[in-house]
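Lecture notes, unit on binding sites. The following record was shown on slide 14. It pairs a sequence with hexanoyl-coenzyme A.
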Amino acid sequence: MDAHKLVEQLGEKKKQIYAQGGEKAISKQHSKGRLTARERIDLLVDPGSFEEFDMFVKTRSTYFGLDKKNIPADGVVTGLATVNGRRIALYAQDFTVVGGSLGEMHALKIAKMQDMAMKLGIPFIGMNDSGGARIQEGVDSLRGYGEIFIRNVRASGVIPQISLAMGPTAGGAVYSPAMMDFIIMTKHAMMYITGPEVVKAVTGEVVSHEDLGGGLVHNQKSGVAHFLAEDDKEAIEKLKVLLSYLPDNYLQTPPFVETGDSVEREIPELIDLVPADPNKGYDVKEVIKSVLDNGEFFEVQELYARNAVVGFGRLGGNVVGVVANQARYLAGVLDINSSDKIARFVRFCDAFNIPLITFVDTPGYLPGVAQEHGGVIRHGAKVLYAYSEATVPKITVILRKSYGGAYIAMCSRHLGADAVFAFPQAEIAVMGAEGAANIIFRKEIKTAEDPDKLRAEKIEEYRKEFANPYRAAERGYIDDVINPKDTRKIVAKTLNYLRSKSESVPEKKHGNIPL
Ligand code: HXC
């Protein structure tokens, strides 16, 4: 046989596979505002860098004549590539081929890439667009999910795992993304365990796909997703930015970038930005941006539990993870959802050698029956656990209020902060002046000739005595009270000193974080 002929035949075979599910299916996909698997890969990877694996894989299943059916690449495109010069292992499910449904071989292709990502110590990226378990393949497709899940878990904390939900992600398909580090979801993607038809049949509720599990729902309400994108293109752009903040694996630090922003830069506007009046609101994101290089802050879970703010930035070119209370929402209280948000982010940063900077301004944990019955004890404990467990450099800046349990939780010295700074307007105490005065001077106030006058005096007395950073500084719980304009300089300098931090934790199998 002529080798040229064989090469020609190979080209023909590949052409057929590249044709995916056919023109009709591709145009249906486009009509929904969604790209195909191969188009998405083209947008993501550096030109010419993609090395596809397993394009000739076919289903082994003979049920319903599946083996006789043309299922190009078994409905998923997998391989290795670079993104801005950095290596990744990826898969992209192809909805134009039997709805991107996950059969056994489809799953094994994904699992092969997971193994590859682990062997190479590089991020694993999944682009999801699938009708879930391939129904015709029965238990083989369920086995396929299991093979993926166990690898997700084994890879957790070893390599970054990021999922993009770009179309239906239904049934068992949701759990691989859920066990990865981040989910970027387009507005029109859907994630749910059971779709609207099943919901209607079981509970009688009538709900659309989008209202049940659309991108907005999971970014705003459930907290399942971490980033919302208008469309596939924006999702891929967000992925590229996210990757720029992450190391390839847990043994590396994230890449240094020369940002051109001097760490000596002063921030005089910070003096006015954080009002001394504890009842006035402000946007903590302004504080964060003013401190970070070039004002660039890549926020994670922007729409969820907005009373807390978490995300990535750079300081002096080094990546940092930022956690802050947002005084603008619910006065920056800690509650069930913000605790989950903070704890998960802190643990991610700790796993991947990203130093933590925490900006504190919180009146405490949110009181209420709903919070208590919802398990605020269990959820709040996650924040304590995550900060205590984290061994990366930890710097805390107390901007204003830092009361009670929340003072301890928000990366206090006592949970292992390496350096704690406070603004002069910081208030560190068990509780606010009014509540405290009412409790400790109750008897005097009750029996006073003019209770209101005495109450006001006692509140003022308490405020003078405790509503400042100096009692904590006297004990060495705060290392310095700083001029807000020097925040960037001081935090960057300290971070540099902490670079060689090495802290060991007791050897164990793993801890038992409250879940
Ligand atoms: C086999 C599937 C499929 C599936 C879709 N298709 N889902 N084939 N198994 N799970 C096929 C369709 O038959 C169709 O084939 C093609 O993909 C495109 O699907 P459409 O329905 O035409 O697309 P659309 O109208 O956009 O609707 C998309 C959809 C719907 C909402 C995802 O297809 C759907 O509801 N699918 C089933 C979802 C589901 O229940 N999955 C199982 C979950 S159970 P043709 O040949 O007509 O083009 C599960 C358990 C795993 O995942 C548990 C692990 C722990």
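Take-home: The radius of gyration is 26 Å.
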